[in-house]
Amino acid sequence: MRPDEIGHFFHYFEKFEGSFALIANSKEVKRAVVFVHGFGGDALGTWAQLQLIIDDETAGSEFASTDLFFFQYRSVWEHIESSTDRFLKFFECLIPKPDISHFSCSNPLLVESSGSESKTICALPAARHYEDVVLAGHSEGGVVIRQAIINRLARTSSKLLDCRLSLFAPAISGYAPSGLLGTLTKSPILGPILEAFLWASPAYQDLKKNEPGKDDFLTELRKKTQAAAQRSPRNALRANILWGRSDRIVTPKKYDFDQQEFVEQGHVGVCKPNRYYLKPLDWIK
User: Fold this and answer.
1) Which of 91, 156, 157, 245 has its CA 20 to 30 A from that of 211?
2) What's the rounded Cα separation, in Å, for the pair 81 and 221?
């Protein structure tokens, strides 16, 4: 295989445990996608198959010149505000211009990048400056992204505010189990056990709706997002949202300033592309 035929290659971030990148084998890359998984998910499994399909001809040519970053965080055992802080540190190390210190490695197969005085091995084929950035969030990941944007509104120069949002079944209206899961939570035997386990999670406490008439984390986030969207045309305040028709975990919520669509998928599968379901790739592109 010639060097120009090699697709994306894997790079692990030592300072962001579990997070990794798929780097395009191109020197001309100005586009990046940052993926944020949901409650109980992880950087790899949540987006399973996408990592392989991007180098398949069925994905189209757009991904050949796109770097992909997969963020890992403690989606169950930390409050969303804490997870948002972790995400912002990750994002700002990469966008718009990657911090080269996070891409150093000792693999002799990778190209050399010249520093001011000495040469180091760098996972990036060339210097990057991303002009087009997409934030892709699933479930709780959509909430983390929304909160990050609200936290950066005061910094009008932040690249985060110019990102495009592609959200998959975001938990922006909270956790509302239905179907089998809803039945289990209402079970006199299993319900209290399941509910006790979930309430031990700080993130679940943030996602759970409070009593009617009382503002909660998600209500406050929604109000701030709507108010900011009315004042500002920034890209990140509006999102493309893809819902699954058979979702039994979150409830779709209509936003006047968001584009929304439904597909024949459930909560877990809505963001997982395969050869017969390429909608997640189209939604990101």
Assistant:
1) 245
2) 11
**Residues 110, 114, 120, 126, CA torsion sign:** negative
C-alpha 46/C-alpha 32 separation (Å) is: 18
**What interhelical angle do 140-151 and 217-231 show, nearest 10?**
50
SS3 276: coil
Is pTM beyond 0.70? Reply is yes
Strand ranges inside the chain, DSSP E: 9-12, 20-23, 31-36, 66-71, 112-114, 119-121, 132-138, 164-168, 239-244, 259-263
Q: How far is CA 264 from the centre of its chain?
A: 21
Name residue 262's beta-bridge partners. Answer: 243
pLDDT digits (tens, 9 = 90+) for 24-62: 998 999 999 999 999 989 999 999 989 989 998 777 778
Using left for φ > 0, alpha for ψ between -120 and 50, and beta otherwise, residue 211 falls in beta
What DSSP line would sit under 56-105, residue for residue? SGGG-SGGGGEEEEEE---TTTS-HHHHHHHHHHHHHTTSSS--GGGGB-
**Domain spanning 3-284: which superfamily?**
Alpha/Beta hydrolase fold, catalytic domain (3.40.50.1820)
Q: Do residues 96 and 160 touch, judged by C-beta distance below 8 A?
A: no
Residue 49 gets the label, from left (phi > 0), alpha (psi -120 to 50) or beta, of left
CA 213 to chain centre: 31
Cα 225 to its chain centre, rounded Å, is 18
What does the alpha-carbon distance between residue 241 and residue 168 come to, in Å, rounded to a whole number?
Answer: 6
Q: Letter for the amino acid at 172?
A: I
Q: How far is CA 101 from the centre of its chain?
A: 23
**The length of the chain, given as a count of residues:** 285
Contact 144, 83 (CB under 8 A): yes
Cα gap 68→23, rounded to integer Å: 7
